[in-house]
Amino acid sequence: MYQALTINEIIAKTAQHPLTHVAEHNRAAVLIPLLDIAGELFVLFEIRNARITQGGDICFPGGKIEPGETPEEAAVRETSEELLIQPQDIDILAPMHVIEGPRSIEVTSYLGQLHNYKATYAPDEIDHIIIQPLSFFMETEPVIWHTRQNTEVNADLPEDLRKFTENKWTGAPRDYYFYRTERGIIWGLTAKVMYYFVKCLKEKKGR
């Protein structure tokens, strides 16, 4: 049975409580990998294996943040595993952005440079890799599709609660980003991460 707490007891119980991230969905981290080839910077992308989720899509290295991991540690670990390189060959240059991904997953992006990379990758996850000059993204604006996302109410929600959800959160704005390249279309979260990275570069350059 609940025992009433005094304000002092509540303060004592919460005094050392850290600010805690509570998420209904998984959190993930990705790396924007740069390669310096003969003095020109390129961005590396992965083409996902057709046998896994979103097979064939162009993406950055990355994945789920495991318990006890920081987002940066997850980005380095996933990149190391997917590209078959050592963590010490991944130089984290800067944290970039926290972006809402598919299914409301919170995705943290980092900018990094790869050293001693020999075009290796894990074939169970990756079909192949591609590189694109950074200059392409600096000179090319993405196609941005502005749409609205509706919330679907499941039939199992009790009737007395349904009235609180109907027509409350429908029409939430959502933007989809697309880059057309000779090697395929970069879209969705990957394109959005790239867009905000390039936006940062252009803003800094203009100062």
Written overview of the protein:
The chain is an alpha+beta fold and 207 residues long. The protein is 24% helix and 36% strand. It is globular. The model has no long low-confidence stretch (mean pLDDT 86).
List keywords for this structure.
207 residues, three-stranded antiparallel beta sheet, 10 strands, 24% helix, globular
Provide the structure class.
Answer: alpha+beta
Number of helices: 5
What is the chain-wise order of helices and strands?
Answer: HEEEEHEEEHEHEEH
Distance between the termini: 62 Å
What helical percentage do the residues reach? Answer: 10-25%
Mean pLDDT: 86
Kindly estimate the percentage of residues that lie in beta strands according to DSSP.
35-45%
Low-confidence segments, given as residue ranges, are none
Overall 3D form? globular
Q: What's the total count of β strands?
A: 10
Radius of gyration: 21 Å
Largest sheet: 7 strands, mixed
Nutshell version of this structure?
Helix content is about 25%, strand content about 35%.
List the helices and strands and how they pair.
Elements: H1 7-14, E1 27-37, E2 40-48, E3 58-59, E4 62-64, H2 71-83, E5 90-100, E6 106-114, E7 126-133, H3 134-139, E8 143-149, H4 159-162, E9 172-181, E10 184-187, H5 188-205
Parallel strand pairs: 1-6
Antiparallel strand pairs: 1-2, 1-4, 2-3, 2-7, 5-6, 8-9, 9-10
